[in-house]
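Lab channel / #folding
Pinned by the channel admin:
"Please post every new chain as: sequence first, then the structure tokens as a reply. Keep commentary short and put observations after the output so the thread stays searchable."

First post following the new format, from NK:
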Amino acid sequence: MSGSGTTAGDDPLQTAVWRLRSRGCWTDAAALLAPRAAEPAAALERAGLLVERCLFTCEGWPEAEDALRTAEAVARDDEERGGAASERGRLAYAATRLGVRDRADEARSALGRAAALLSPSSPRRPLLDFRRGLLAEHIADAPQAARAAYERAHAGAGTHGDPLLLSFTSQQLAGLALREGELAIARQGFAECLRIREELGYLIGTAPALAGLADCETEPEAGRLRAEAHRLFRLLGGVPVWLAPQLAPAVPAQTPPVRPEPAAQ
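Reply from TO:
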């Protein structure tokens, strides 16, 4: 659930799933995988799509729970069970982070279970490290532990050739650098994140990268970047929802609130 799906060897189904996912059409992408939901890999991928929808939109929780239960039921070995546990941890993290319900203990338990099930060489390990970093940063308020987890994830993403995960680790490490006043490092990280996402066509991740880069710049460049992030945010129907407060200054005070436009299908 982190690969780009755009490499030359990908099958048409994976390419279609990626194109829908990258534009925020998670439900449509998951529907393409529904006929194969009895297969562990497809069930886990489908669950990951619906969990990601929750994290970006704060909607679709029952559907994500149902898909997760299916993925957990059809998992056959530790690798598949570990992948399902990682997704359950991400769902619990999302519910906690977005203020839906405090599921922090469940998130810690599920991610810990995933760590016990996945081997150190598992291709799912870097993504797990990244999610444990999110938990450390945003739930436990432990930036140093988060940095260590992000750095492990970044190195693993490079080893396993996962450019999308590299964009996420670059973004989070840049955010920590910005928090500590290291503007040059933060600017470099957000710029790298933006470059990767533009190359992959990961449209739903472009606005957060632009907004992060804007926070590292001075005017008028900061305003230009933030305005472009706000344009994309509106184009995609107001996702990711957690970006709205960061983009609020881009809206003139005298302008009445604009209803988000529906995401393109």
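NK: Confidence is low (pLDDT under 50) at residues 1-8, 250-265.
TO: also worth noting, The radius of gyration is 18 Å.
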